[in-house]
Amino acid sequence: IYLLISIIIRLIILSEYPIFSIQPDSYSYFTEANKMLKSELPQFDTRSPFLPIFIYLCLKLKTSISFLFFVQSTITVLSGLFLSFFIGAYLGKKLLSIFVIFLITLYINSPVVINHDFSLLSESLYTSLLILSFTLMGISIFNLKKINMLFTSFFFAFVVLIKPAGDFIIVMYLFLIII
Q1: pTM, full prediction
Q2: Coil, strand, or helix at residue 119?
Q3: Distance (Å, rounded) from C-alpha 162 to C-alpha 122?
Q4: Half-sphere exposure of 121 toward its Cβ, with a 13 Å CA cutoff?
């Protein structure tokens, strides 16, 4: 139900309101991605590298800004789906799980999240990968498999590459590894 609601809402928004949000910070991200598209070396002195590289990859696959926002929105929906799966599979209590999944559906489909999904800002990817990272960390705590830890490390690294403010994760992750 979560996936169906999220897809329908986003398809309606994409088809009825094809206006995307450009913020003051958007230009600096797009400039670096544009340099890479022209085979020039980007400078990551004022911006972290992940979002311009992500924009570059999306525009290289399909030269449409709509495709970029579609990919961002898909990552958001999948991170919420993954979190919903984790809550339903690992936390037990059926009624509580249904309530929490309902809250996740409300959050993922809220106007603020959808606005971030359709804008050239790092917030969409940062939040989605943060949700995904903590979900993977929860699965790692329950399963204690090396492959789960590897994916958790991978996504935590992406979170830090998107926004260096994500460095706080390193302390929690080291604590998890020590335990």
Answers
A1: 0.83
A2: strand
A3: 7
A4: 17
